[in-house]
Amino acid sequence: MRVLRIARVLKLLKMAKGIRALLDTVMQALPQVGNLGLLFFLLFFIFAALGVELFGRLECSDEIPCQGLGEHAHFANFGMAFLTLFRVATGDNWNGIMKDTLREDCDNSVDCVKNCCVSTIIAPIFFVVFVLMAQFVLVNVVVAVRIMMKTK
């Protein structure tokens, strides 16, 4: 039954010239978009590794509440750091996550294991540079590639 529904949608796509032109443009731009995907992955990979190193020992609890960091957004391991950066790249409470990395009630000792402080200079630079690169530069490059392929 599902196969028939999919076939029906494909039949409708053949009839709609505007949608067909859009799909043709997307198919022509796939190689360039693939290169941009690798660039996004490299950016996220580098910043996730930095995030684990810088913010991996921050913790949230009842005594130390967090605005952005929590069970589903933290830098304790590489995978969650990658997903947290994806949230930051989409603009989902990135300023709350940055505020949690700047809190003052943390352990400032050299042999810190949990809830370690981060430099108040490094954390804003980390997040602002990442947001500028992910939200503005790379997204605009994707749009530029799409427009370039449309004009060909």
Proportion of beta-strand residues: under 5%
CATH overall fold name: Helix Hairpins
Helix content: 55-70%
Total discrete domains: 1
| Whole-number mean pLDDT | 81
Any low-confidence stretches, pLDDT <50, length ≥5? none
Order of helices and strands: HHHHH
Compute the gyration radius: what is it?
A: 21 Å
Overall CATH architecture: Orthogonal Bundle
**Biggest sheet, in brief?**
none
Subcellular location: Membrane
InterPro entries: Ion_trans_dom, VGCC_Ca_Na
Transmembrane segments: 121-145
Organism: Eumeta variegata (Bagworm moth)
Which descriptors apply to this entry?
152 residues; 5 helices; mainly alpha; Helix Hairpins
Molecular structure report:
It holds the Pfam family Ion_trans. InterPro entries: Ion_trans_dom, VGCC_Ca_Na. By secondary structure, the chain is mainly alpha-helical. It has a single domain, classed as Helix Hairpins (Orthogonal Bundle), CATH 1.10.287. It has helices spanning 2-15, 17-55, 78-89, 94-101, 122-151. Helix 2 (17-55) runs antiparallel to helix 5 (122-151) and helix 4 (94-101) runs antiparallel to helix 5 (122-151). The radius of gyration is 21 Å and the shape is elongated.
